[in-house]
Specification:
Blueprint (H helix, E strand, L loop, with lengths): L1 H8 L23 E3 L6 E4 L9 E2 L6 E2 L4 E4 L8 E2 L4 E3 L3 E4 L5 E9 L9 H5 L14 H10 L12 H5 L9 E6 L8 H8 L1 H15 L3 E7 L3 H10 L6 E6 L8 H9 L16 E5 H13 L5 E7 L7 E6 L4 H7 L7 E6 L21 E6 H4 L12 H5 L6 H9 L3 H6 L10 H5 L6 H23 L1
Parallel strand pairs: 1-15, 10-11, 10-13, 11-12, 14-17
Antiparallel strand pairs: 2-9, 3-5, 4-7, 5-6, 7-9, 8-9, 14-15, 16-17
Helix pairs in contact: 3-6, 3-9, 5-7, 6-9, 13-16
The structure holds iron/sulfur cluster (2 copies).
One iron/sulfur cluster binds next to helix 15 and helix 16.
């Protein structure tokens, strides 16, 4: 609470509670984005978004061109998947997502010659967007092009972006916020994109504003990224209705229930029913805005993304432009492999990212980083009995009682867990981080929510 007040006194946007984990961004924050050119087979899961799984529209042994659509779904709540490289389709199989979920997938073997257009990295980071006039695009056409190019929320949520931006007369939107906070420790992919390609991010923001009818666009960046703040401030010159706002460096600043109150003073109603659009706001990640601009203006589908490979357990940390479907093992091998001290590999950052079950998992549209941690960094999580210190309660940014929820889940009393508002938890991990007993409270809560969802699905199955 006090830190939020102090931040505001320093002129920074902030929210009460939350935590200050070590940033550990120095591993990769100065490393320019480089292209990772795959030589090994890619694995393309048909579920890379929240919604209905895609179906393949190609056959085994078929040759495909770079950016050719290879899977789609009839449902609007889906986003198609495109070939990240030219190559040959393999036989359909099952793949494990970074979250551990098994889903249908198809392999794609890259062509030996010219799997990508020339100058691919330079085009990805192209900064010549001055002549683009977002107000000339029709809002429905923007949403249609976003869907056609497979754009989903790339901050991890993977919600189809065309649905998020579709105008809803019952819930008018006045503000789009670009989330450039990247508050997760270690990760720097959004940071590098803001430094190296700020112009398409601004165009993506303006297109998002046009699509949903918002008159105001904010780019929220934590104060620990001064070069990104400068780059974005330069890029918004001559772009009306757009502003850069500087936020305190605090976790989880990038959460919608923290960032929206911090920059606009509006409280988003509790999850799972309450959404930012209930308070007239849409939030879009930096990488998503970049993909919106490329998809809508240039017709380039989402086939690649910037992935931070980082942590004390990897030999050559950096930021890589990676084809979707790249196996973690191939990318880590390209980065000099794991050190002997490597203990666990996390998809994303350590606060919210899941530990991957093996290194065969593939980069998907929502994979912002791979963090390789060593023993000293993970010792914090060894569990012992609760000492009733209340630190988890005092630091929960959503004012929940994590210890009570986790206790109810441990004893499988899901009704009680619901009474304590289990479903409002955003799984930020602040409670686990501050617990001196090393109790993985957020993991218990995530498991409890999954269990309740599975029980509801089984009930539904029996009823039909
Ligand atoms: S209970 Fe949920 S929202 Fe609160 S700190 Fe823990 S993980 Fe975050
Ligand atoms: S922080 Fe850990 S030890 Fe303290 S009350 Fe919460 S669960 Fe118990």
């Amino acid at each position: 609470m006090i830190s939020g007040l102090l931040d505001r006194m320093r002129g920074l946007r902030s929210f009460p509670r939350g935590v200050h984990p070590p940033h550990r961004k120095a591993y990769s924050q100065a490393a320019p984005i480089e292209l990772f050119a795959p030589t090994q087979e890619l694995m393309l899961p048909f579920v890379q978004h929240i919604g209905v799984a895609c179906d393949p529209i190609v056959q085994p042994r078929q040759s495909v061109a770079y950016a050719e659509k290879i899977a789609d779904a009839a449902s609007p709540l889906a986003a198609p998947i495109h070939a990240p490289v030219a190559g040959t389709i393999g036989t359909g199989t099952m793949a494990v997502l970074p979250s551990g979920r098994r889903v249908p997938a198809i392999p794609l073997a890259p062509a030996a010659e010219n799997p990508l257009p020339p100058d691919f990295l330079q085009r990805f980071l192209d900064r010549r967007w001055d002549d683009v006039e977002p107000e000339r695009f029709d809002p429905d056409e923007i949403c249609a092009r976003i869907r056609e190019n497979g754009v989903v929320g790339m901050g991890g949520a993977t919600f189809p972006t065309h649905i998020k931006l579709k105008k809803n007369p019952a819930k008018p939107i006045d503000t789009v916020i670009i989330n450039g906070c990247e508050c997760e420790p270690y990760l720097t992919s959004d940071h590098r994109l803001m430094v190296e390609a700020p112009e398409p991010i601004v165009v993506g923001l303006q297109l998002a504003m046009r699509a949903c009818g918002a008159g105001r666009g904010l780019i929220a960046i934590e104060a620990n990224k001064p070069d990104a703040i400068d780059a974005m401030r330069r890029a918004i010159q001559g772009r009306p209705g757009v502003e850069v706002v500087v936020c305190a460096t605090k976790y989880p600043m990038g959460g919608e229930r923290q960032l929206i109150p911090a920059v606009l003073g509006r409280t988003v109603p509790s999850a799972p029913k309450g959404l930012p659009l209930d308070v007239g706001v849409v939030m879009v990640n930096v990488a998503t805005a970049h993909s919106i601009a490329r998809g809508v203006v240039r017709g380039i589908p989402l086939t690649h993304r910037v992935v931070t490979v980082t942590g004390a357990g990897v030999n050559q940390p950096g930021n890589w432009l990676v084809p979707i479907g790249t196996k973690f093992s191939d990318l880590l091998g390209h980065c000099g492999g794991l050190k002997e001290t490597a203990l666990k590999v996390v998809a994303g950052g350590p606060m919210m990212g899941p530990t991957v079950p093996n290194l065969d998992v593939a980069v998907v549209k929502g994979t912002s980083g791979i963090t390789v941690m060593i023993e000293e960094e993970t010792a914090h999580w060894r569990e012992s009995p609760c000492i009733r210190c209340s630190r988890c309660v005092d630091n929960c940014p959503l004012h929940l009682s994590p210890t009570k929820i986790a206790h109810a889940i441990k004893f499988r009393d899901y009704d009680l867990a619901n009474q304590y508002d289990m479903n409002a938890c955003c799984e930020c991990g602040c409670c686990s981080y501050v617990c001196p007993a090393g109790i993985p409270l957020a993991q218990y809560i995530r498991a409890g929510k999954n269990q309740v969802r599975a029980m509801a699905a089984r009930k539904q199955e029996f009823a039909t």
